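lol forgot to send this yesterday, sorry. struct tokens for the thing we talked abt
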């Protein structure tokens, strides 16, 4: 830990101050010690240029039950800035002020001044900050004016602050013109005291949310605890975000330079990765068993992790790192997704935008075509009709008495043959019943004509013959 000019026995320092605009006004404290500090009973005072006395700025009431962790920040803001520890609408700061923080014993722990004041404690007075800027303490204890970094590491040099003409340069910083490249990732030209690694699934799909993650590493190459690091992202499309892992959506296809800055204490580092955002080429197919298939129509493998399938009130979140190979598809069973799909099913990007709407598969009944699961019904052929009609066609009714036994035998065999053909050919039961009924009527009609044309003696003789003929048949 570096030495910082401050009052004796101080572990808490005033690290950064923003004066204007009023809504963005804040004071940032930093704990340089390795132990947490209880701020109960502490207070901050303020003195303007030309005044000899300090007045109350942040009373001890505001610090009641407040603690600042080891190596951590403590933020006092006029309005609700991110992660503010104290929000104080009466926080008043102007140009050329001096402020000091005292502990429970009334001992000045740290004091700073800026502008045209003469009382700046044991450090050099800081310049007056411009609107939208803050004064920041560097690792050497000097002050610079730069873009505000509440609850984050301060910029260490005037070059980083972008105002080298009016602010002092931290002589302890060194530069290195070389850069390191690994998988399209580069570090900044100023050697950071920590390194940053970006993880992103590239290429990403435009219109879809993509997950970006970062990790900061110390000078010894070990990962820094996330609770002590602030991560700030710039996605190169006009948007920024904060957090170690963030979900970002590129609205349009293109190549974007995504940068990440990580800050811990007085150290910071940054990295950059080039990201290609490509148009989505996916389709959602509804299969006949109500399962859903996602097809990747692009030439690159597609990560659909964290996408979701939904139909009605049911939804399924696709597990992280689920890959659909280029030109291939993945089918999701309804027993796995608990989504019984129909044509209203949708595929959603991680940002809840619709990626695709379900379309029935080529062989699905849901396309509107009537699909009969049984064999299509068959109709009588001309040969069958002819066979059935040969009983009477081409035969004079007067000859019926001569052909009686053979005709009845032939008719019974033909009806049986038609019935057998109907069963073996796949006829339905209703159709088979109709055929048998038609055969019975046909036999009854022939018998009626025959009996009407015979004499009583012939009837007796024919009955005997019929009885003999009938006895020759085996009924199964």
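and heres what i got for the seq, position by position
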């Amino acid at each position: 830990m570096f030495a910082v000019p401050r009052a004796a026995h101080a572990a808490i320092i005033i690290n950064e101050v923003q004066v204007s605009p009023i809504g963005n006004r804040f004071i940032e404290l930093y704990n340089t010690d390795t132990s947490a500090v209880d701020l109960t009973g502490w207070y901050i005072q303020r003195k303007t240029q030309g005044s000899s006395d300090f007045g109350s700025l942040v009373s001890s009431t505001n610090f009641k039950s407040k603690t600042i962790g080891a190596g951590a920040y403590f933020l006092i803001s006029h309005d609700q800035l991110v992660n503010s520890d104290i929000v104080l609408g009466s926080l008043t700061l102007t140009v050329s002020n001096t402020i000091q923080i005292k502990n429970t014993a009334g001992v000045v722990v740290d004091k700073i001044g800026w502008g045209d004041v003469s009382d700046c404690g044991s450090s050099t007075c800081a310049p007056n900050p411009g609107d939208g800027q803050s004064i920041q303490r560097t690792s050497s204890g000097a002050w610079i004016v730069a873009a505000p970094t509440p609850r984050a590491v301060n910029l260490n040099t005037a070059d980083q602050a972008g105002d080298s003409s009016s602010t002092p340069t931290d002589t302890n910083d060194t530069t290195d013109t070389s850069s390191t490249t690994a998988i399209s990732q580069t570090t900044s030209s100023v050697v950071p005291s920590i390194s940053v690694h970006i993880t992103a699934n590239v290429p990403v799909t435009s219109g879809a949310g993509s997950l970006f993650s970062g990790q900061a590493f110390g000078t010894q190459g070990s990962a820094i605890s996330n609770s002590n690091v602030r991560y700030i992202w710039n996605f190169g499309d006009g948007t920024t975000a904060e957090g170690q892992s963030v979900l970002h959506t590129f609205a349009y296809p293109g190549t974007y330079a995504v940068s990440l800055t990580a800050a811990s204490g007085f150290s910071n580092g940054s990295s950059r990765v080039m990201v290609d955002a490509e148009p989505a080429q996916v389709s959602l197919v509804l299969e006949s068993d109500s399962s859903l298939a996602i097809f990747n129509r692009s030439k690159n493998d597609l990560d659909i992790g964290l996408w979701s399938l939904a139909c009605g009130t049911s939804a399924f979140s696709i597990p992280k790192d689920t890959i659909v190979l280029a030109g291939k598809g993945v089918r999701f069973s309804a027993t796995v997704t608990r989504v019984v799909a129909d044509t209203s099913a949708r595929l959603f990007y991680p940002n809840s935008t619709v990626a695709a709407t379900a379309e029935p598969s080529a062989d699905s009944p849901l396309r509107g075509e009537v699909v009969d699961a049984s064999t299509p019904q068959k109709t009588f052929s001309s040969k069958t009709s002819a066979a059935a009609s040969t009983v009477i066609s081409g035969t004079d009714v007067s000859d019926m008495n001569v052909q009686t036994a053979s005709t009845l035998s032939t008719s019974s065999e033909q009806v049986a043959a038609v019935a057998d053909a109907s069963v073996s050919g796949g006829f339905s039961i209703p159709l088979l019943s109709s055929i048998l009924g038609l055969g019975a009527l046909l036999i009854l009609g022939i018998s009626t004509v025959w009996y009407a044309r015979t004499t009583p003696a012939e009837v007796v003789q024919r009955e005997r013959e019929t009885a003999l003929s009938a006895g020759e048949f085996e009924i199964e």
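The mean pLDDT is 74. anyway ping me if u want another try
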